[in-house]
Amino acid sequence: MKKYIAVFMLLFSSITFGGDGRTIEFSINDSWIFYKDSGDKPIALREIGDREVEIVNLPHTWNAEDAIHGATSKEEGYYRGPAWYLRKITVPAHYQDKELYVFFEGANQETDVFVNGQFAGGHVGGYTRFVVPISKFVQFDSSKQSADFELAVRVDNVHNLDIPPLSADFTFYGGIYRDVFLVATEKVHFNIEDHASNGIYIRTPSVSAEQVEMDVDVQLINCGTTDRNVKLETIIYDPYSKPVVTNASDITLAAGQKLTAKPKVDPIHNPSLWSPDSPNLYRLVCRLYDAETNQMLDESMSPFGCRWFSFDAEKGFFLNGKHLKLIGTNRHQDYLNIGNALPDYIHREDIKKMKEMGSNFLRIAHYPQDPAVLELCDRLGILTTVEVPIIDTITESEAFKQNCLNIHLEMMRQNYNHPSLIIWAYMNEVLLHPKYQKDKEKQKDYFEKVYEIASELEALTRKEDPYRYTMIPNHANLNLYKDTKLTDLPMIVGWNIYFGWYKGEFSDIKSIMTEYHHTIPDKPMIIAEYGAGADPRLHALTPTRFDFTIEYATRFHEQYLSALTDFPFISGINVWNFADFGSVGRVDTVPNINNKGLIGIDRKPKDAYFFYQAALLKKPFIGITAKTWIRRACVESKSGKGVCMMPVEIFSNQNKLELFHNGISLGAKMVQEHNKVIWDVPFVDGNNILRAVSSDNSRVEDCATVRMDVLPIKLDDFPVAGLSINCGDYRFFYDDILDRAWLPEKVYIEGSWGYIGGKVYAMEQTPRQSFGTSQPIEGTNCDPLYQTQRIGIKQYRFDVPPGVYEVTLHLAELTGKMAASLPYSLDGFDDKKPSITKNREFTVNLNGTPVIERISLAKDYGSFRAVKIKAIVTTEADEPLLIDFVPLNEDAVINGIELNKKL
Ligand code: GCB
Ligand code: CA
């Protein structure tokens, strides 16, 4: 619906296009007055007075800031309620003869539109488009060249039991977060009032390499008071913009009549087929003319593609008769610092990055997204599934069901013609939170209600579109979905699996998926989600499950991709997720963020993105993972050498690579399993420039520059950078705000430095994690540093040269009432168990002098809060620097230590 040319047409309409009556549409995104207010009636612009308002541009959300920072871990702290947008619109006088509409690409989630103070229409649901007719509220004065009116839009994102989604692992940012257009049509036009579609529905009931049969519905409306004779012209343009099929038909529309025309459209011969490799796009142009004057009344262009496809329960997916393994990601629609209010540019960039990764498939989860998404999938050749946001649970009300059905229908009508779209999905893990756990009778009724909604959605989908597939994606509880018959309904069953992340091992995947297939042998299967969290700030040489390191997620994807693509019965797979996304209340290493993306919420790639590129791309590719870890600290490998050996992984689809380090060749190596080759690189203090080149005949190369602090084993020459040690942790942590690298802890050895005594703290209540906690920590952005701790610590010892030192202790009490729980309590892990606060007390002595006495983290600061305490200590010649922890009640703890030399 984005024709920017239309703005142009508006400006010059009376001169250039005055006689041409086709539909005009232009965005009205800028300069809205915005304020939060719970009133039901709009105020006029002149009544604003000294009310506190902001001037905002659309796309806009009021949760960009509070969904990340304001949402405290204690409660759902982001604003969920009503707010108003007001704006004056001026239109030229000749619009008096037109029909006017306001077209919204999306507003979350209940919207009421007022024109000049009068209610004009509303919409329910945060992810589909809608249109509000406004002509009858606009007054034209024939003595003036233009007319003004005031538009007031009330948007509310409050939790509403009758509107899906009710609960989900993502943030329900409120606002008019997509583009808004003013549309001016002739009285007779293609019916955008039909669920905010373009009124044109293209089907290709039979496609072969020789011929394509066309079946087109055109919805027309006559808003005028007289009967009209019109001519409908349909022209098919081939991918080279050549008209190949033209038809015309005559239609009569009575005053006020809506009708669905079925124009005869001749078949296309020898079509250029649409596929991921050759996304050939055809265009159906529909033109409507007044039969008497021959004046054009409306024009609409719809993309379509000539392709045929099928899913087979045993053999997988076929496109145009050829087998194709569907591989790609899921996608959410938000971005760093701007919530869901994305300019189209980022939507397009995302799809481009998917193509650059080698994706041929995208699950648009968990809701329909901006029109730019499917437009680009059509153009770049990425097959898609799109779904309505019925997630985790339902409400057993008639209103809930009707809203589900209506939103689903809107989704279908609005996206009907996209050739990239092959599956209509609905419900995601809808039995994740089945109600009435304790009352099995009631639960039975509940399951029946879920089934009823699902079967009505299924029936609606098949009736609306007999040529695409349907899917329900479930969480990995085979029997639950089978027993409730939810696996019987759709044409494809989707599974969201997380073995090796929330629970289990990677090695479980093969046997489990085989069992799933054998239990439901006649249904095609898609792995609609699989993924692992990765915080770009965390790295490990020995990654383990649920540690949120970049490396663990990369191992996870290596295993999954090879295991899942081995099975012919798995038609397609979608990584959860393309990019990190906001999820208020989620507690991992970055509060309110789900970091299972292959790229960050800022769209910077993580290592696993390079892995997929190497595995999927046909054109030569090299990706040095060191690009994602460019600021590091490590301890030298041999005392006094100033060199730290660290493995560097490179992903490539080449046979052989050569790696250069600061200009020196480290030799050539064959690329191994998972398209990977590893070099041990002798990192030096300062900049390390890595360059990998292909030894094959292609000219591809990749570079990375890593800035390294190589820290000495013996501190005779105390490092200027000081020591920053992440205690109770094997992970390297990078503080991206201060650009500072933290080392994993190391045990004291003679003549060196490190901890003495204690053990790595592991919070008992989180069985997923064998160390630390994933509770959010208040008062810091460095959660991982404080989430891990050495408990029962006796001493930290540094054998330093004489001098004056500053010691900073980083502390946090990790017992106490848990601030939050994972939104996903998969398979009975109960993270909500309150734990008792340990009232620990300890004293810290610096070289024998008590400096911090009787500290009680819980009492003095509270649980899960970052505490930093600095103190000075002077050492004499041959005297070590000793930090003694003296427990007075319970064990002493330490989460991080910094040591710097002042003199
Ligand atoms: C799921 C959900 C998705 C979550 C994801 C996760 O199964 O469908 O919405 O974000 O798991 O990361 O836990
Ligand atoms: Ca720590």
Automatic annotation (TrEMBL):
<keyword id="KW-0732">Signal</keyword>
<feature type="domain" description="DUF4982">
    <location>
        <begin position="646"/>
        <end position="695"/>
    </location>
</feature>
<dbReference type="Pfam" id="PF11721">
    <property type="entry name" value="Malectin"/>
</dbReference>
<dbReference type="InterPro" id="IPR006103">
    <property type="entry name" value="Glyco_hydro_2_cat"/>
</dbReference>
<dbReference type="InterPro" id="IPR006104">
    <property type="entry name" value="Glyco_hydro_2_N"/>
</dbReference>
<dbReference type="Pfam" id="PF02837">
    <property type="entry name" value="Glyco_hydro_2_N"/>
</dbReference>
<dbReference type="InterPro" id="IPR051913">
    <property type="entry name" value="GH2_Domain-Containing"/>
</dbReference>
<feature type="domain" description="Glycosyl hydrolases family 2 sugar binding">
    <location>
        <begin position="79"/>
        <end position="184"/>
    </location>
</feature>
<feature type="domain" description="Glycoside hydrolase family 2 catalytic">
    <location>
        <begin position="315"/>
        <end position="614"/>
    </location>
</feature>
<dbReference type="InterPro" id="IPR036156">
    <property type="entry name" value="Beta-gal/glucu_dom_sf"/>
</dbReference>
<dbReference type="InterPro" id="IPR006101">
    <property type="entry name" value="Glyco_hydro_2"/>
</dbReference>
<dbReference type="InterPro" id="IPR021720">
    <property type="entry name" value="Malectin_dom"/>
</dbReference>
<dbReference type="InterPro" id="IPR008979">
    <property type="entry name" value="Galactose-bd-like_sf"/>
</dbReference>
<dbReference type="InterPro" id="IPR032311">
    <property type="entry name" value="DUF4982"/>
</dbReference>
<dbReference type="InterPro" id="IPR017853">
    <property type="entry name" value="GH"/>
</dbReference>
<comment type="similarity">
    <text>Belongs to the glycosyl hydrolase 2 family.</text>
</comment>
<keyword id="KW-0378">Hydrolase</keyword>
<feature type="signal peptide">
    <location>
        <begin position="1"/>
        <end position="18"/>
    </location>
</feature>
<protein>
    <submittedName>
        <fullName>Beta-galactosidase</fullName>
        <ecNumber>3.2.1.23</ecNumber>
    </submittedName>
</protein>
<dbReference type="Pfam" id="PF02836">
    <property type="entry name" value="Glyco_hydro_2_C"/>
</dbReference>
<dbReference type="GO" id="GO:0005975">
    <property type="term" value="P:carbohydrate metabolic process"/>
</dbReference>
<dbReference type="Pfam" id="PF00703">
    <property type="entry name" value="Glyco_hydro_2"/>
</dbReference>
<feature type="domain" description="Glycoside hydrolase family 2 immunoglobulin-like beta-sandwich">
    <location>
        <begin position="204"/>
        <end position="307"/>
    </location>
</feature>
<dbReference type="InterPro" id="IPR013783">
    <property type="entry name" value="Ig-like_fold"/>
</dbReference>
<dbReference type="InterPro" id="IPR006102">
    <property type="entry name" value="Ig-like_GH2"/>
</dbReference>
<dbReference type="GO" id="GO:0004565">
    <property type="term" value="F:beta-galactosidase activity"/>
</dbReference>
<dbReference type="Pfam" id="PF16355">
    <property type="entry name" value="DUF4982"/>
</dbReference>
<keyword id="KW-0326">Glycosidase</keyword>
<feature type="domain" description="Malectin">
    <location>
        <begin position="723"/>
        <end position="872"/>
    </location>
</feature>
